[in-house]
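For the sake of clarity, the format in which proteins appear in this thesis is described at this point. The record quoted next illustrates the convention:

___
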Amino acid sequence: MNDKRVLRICRKYDIKSNIKWKPKSCTRGDRNPDHIAKNYLHREFHAEKPNEKWLTDVSEFKYYNGIEVHKVYLSAILDLYDRRIVSFKISDHNDNPLVMDTFD
C-alpha cells in the first residue's frame, strides 16, 4: 500500500500518531546556564612553548559484545604546542572522577 494512501485515510478519519524521538546525545545545553566558562584561548589554538595551553575532552565510544552494546569513555589532555597527548584515562563511566584522574 502506498504511503500517500495511508496518509489520506488517516486524515479522513482524523487518525494521528505520537512519535517519540530518542535523544541523540547524552547532554543538552541549558537555556539559562548557571556558569559560563571564561574564554581564555579566543580561538588561538597555537602555543609558543610546551605546557602553555592544554585542551581536554571526554569522548564516548560504543562497542559490541555479541548483540550487547557497551560504552567506554576516553578522557584526554592535548598539548597545543606539539599536539601530543599529555595524559589519558579510559573508564566505563562518564563522571568527574574520570576527568580528575586524567589530570592527576
In short: The chain has a mean pLDDT of 88. Strands lie at 54-65, 68-79, 84-91.
